[in-house]
Structures are given as structure tokens and as C-alpha cells.
Design goal:
Elements lengths: L3 H11 L6 E3 L5 H8 L7 E2 L2 H7 L10 H13 L5 E4 L8 H15 L3 E5 L12 H18 L4 E6 L8 H14 L3 E4 L5 H10 L3 E5 L7 H7 L3 E3 L3 H18 L15
Parallel strand pairs: 1-8, 2-3, 3-4, 4-5, 5-6, 6-7, 7-8
Helix pairs in contact: 2-4, 4-5, 5-6, 6-7
Keywords: Lyase, Pyruvate
Pfam family, one: PEP_mutase
Protein name: Isocitrate lyase/phosphoenolpyruvate mutase family protein
């Protein structure tokens, strides 16, 4: 078994500009186990949207912090690979609460990385002030330090996705790096030009979302991205296949080849 410390160190190393970590996001124990067994996979990441929907609740902290940590624990126990958890907004109203919750996540689940976002609650919309968001990143960093685990913090910048300015997005990204983030999850990089510009102006490693019709994975690697994830799209991929199979079987069609796929925990 690899220690939690070793997993954290490995997860950090895997965020390599030009040789990005590709994480096919998971949402429960069996999805984690199946993805972990795919050739070449070296680390896992959950997607909060998918985890929430698997529990029958909406995204944006529809789960309680206890439920979120329990879900992360089930995923982490299913594999020996490093796990980064989409920890949404930290499940707390202030930085101190974020720190306490992140410490619990590390100690109780065995996770070694987190995503933390700078948006406000879904009902109000918008983003936290830069100072507030940076303080929450700093609290997560302090929680990792207190446990002795060098938590890999992927700090999400929601500015462009919310209609904000490029300048604000870059200012936030650099503030979060200064506060202790390891990587910036920069939403809204929709083409090669925006990827290049972000890499030029942000003073650290970048992660982004991959999607059909977006910048190809090989090009993202060539440009210098350090991590590519897919969020709830991987759950959509699995559910689309399930729905197609249900349609075929209901219509008395041929048995799908994947119906014989073998799996176990």
C-alpha cells in the first residue's frame, strides 16, 4: 500500500506542464475502481455534480459536509491511486470552517487533493471577493500542513464562466497561487488563444476542462496545460451508454456487446 503522504507527492508531480494529468472523473466506488484499472491511469478525481446526482440531490452543496466526506471515503477506499476530491466551496460560510472541513476530509477519507471554487451559493450567484476566496484557499493549505499531508489544491476561478472580465480572472488566479494553491482550475478557456494567454499571464500551473469540440487533448499538452478533467461529462458518457442499451433491449434488439463486461469491487 502507498502511504497518504506518497500519494499526495505523486499527485503533485503528475501535474506536469506539457505532460498533463488526465482525470476521467468518477462519482462512486465502482466508477473509481473501473477507471483506476484502465491502462495508464495514475490518479483519480471526483466530480461534485456527479456525486451529488448519484445521491439524488442537486450540485452546489446539495450534500452535507458529512455526506461529501463519506462519499469521498468510499471512492478513496476503492483504489490505491491518489484521489483529488471536488470539495465545492468547502461546505462552510467562512475560511475557518473551510479549514476544519478540509482537515476532516484529509484525515477521514484519505484524499490527497481538492478542488475548491470561488463562486457563491447557487441562489445568489456571483463570486466571493478575492480576499475572501484567497483566505479560503489559505485555510485549505493550512489544514493540509497541519495534517502533514501536502494537499494538492486545484483552485477554481469561475470569473469567465460567470461573465466576468479576463483581468479579474487572472488577478484571482495569481492571488490564489499566492495563498497556497498548487494549480489553477481556469474555467472558460474555450480555444487555443485563451489557453495560451492564461498560460502566459498566470504565475503557475493550469488545469482546464476537456470537452467534445474543444481544444484537443494533444494540443492542450503541447501548449503546457498541467491537468485536464471532464467534470460531470464522464457520468453523462456512462449514462448515455446505459440509456442506449435500455432502448435496444426494450425494443427486443441484439444484446449489446458490453452487456458481458465483468466488474467487481
Amino acid at each position: 500500500m502507498t502511504s497518504q503522504l506518497q500519494k499526495a507527492e505523486l499527485l503533485n508531480r503528475l501535474h506536469a506542464p506539457g505532460n498533463p494529468l488526465i482525470v476521467t472523473n468518477v462519482w462512486d466506488a465502482i466508477s473509481a475502481k473501473i477507471v483506476s484499472e484502465a491502462p495508464g491511469v495514475q490518479a483519480l478525481a471526483s466530480a461534485s455534480h456527479s456525486v451529488s446526482f448519484a445521491h439524488g440531490v442537486p450540485d452546489n452543496e446539495g450534500l452535507s459536509v458529512d455526506q461529501a466526506i463519506h462519499a469521498a471515503t468510499l471512492i478513496a477506499r476503492a483504489t490505491d491511486l491518489p484521489l483529488s476530491v471536488d470539495f465545492e466551496k468547502g461546505y462552510a460560510t467562512d475560511a475557518a470552517g473551510v479549514g476544519a472541513n478540509v482537515r476532516r476530509l484529509i484525515e477521514e477519507s484519505g484524499a490527497v487533493g481538492i478542488n475548491i471554487e470561488d463562486s457563491l451559493e447557487a441562489a445568489t450567484g456571483g463570486q466571493r471577493s478575492i480576499d475572501d476566496a484567497a483566505a479560503r484557499v489559505a485555510a485549505a493549505r493550512a489544514a493540509g500542513d497541519a495534517t502533514g499531508i501536502p494537499l494538492v489544491i486545484n483552485a477554481r476561478v469561475d470569473t469567465l464562466a460567470g461573465g466576468g472580465t479576463w483581468e479579474d480572472a487572472v488577478t484571482r488566479a495569481n492571488a490564489y497561487l499566492d495563498a497556497g494553491a498548487d494549480v489553477i482550475f481556469f474555467l472558460g478557456l474555450v480555444n487555443e488563444d485563451t489557453v495560451k494567454r492564461a498560460l502566459d499571464e498566470v504565475n503557475g500551473r493550469l488545469s482546464t476542462i476537456g470537452s467534445a469540440g474543444g481544444v484537443p487533448l494533444k494540443k492542450l499538452a503541447e501548449l503546457g496545460i498541467s491537468r485536464v478533467s471532464f467534470g460531470p461529462q464522464t457520468m453523462g458518457l456512462a449514462l448515455a451508454a446505459l440509456q442506449r442499451a435500455a432502448t435496444t433491449l426494450t425494443a427486443l434488439g441484439d444484446y449489446p456487446e458490453d452487456l458481458s463486461f465483468k466488474f467487481e469491487l
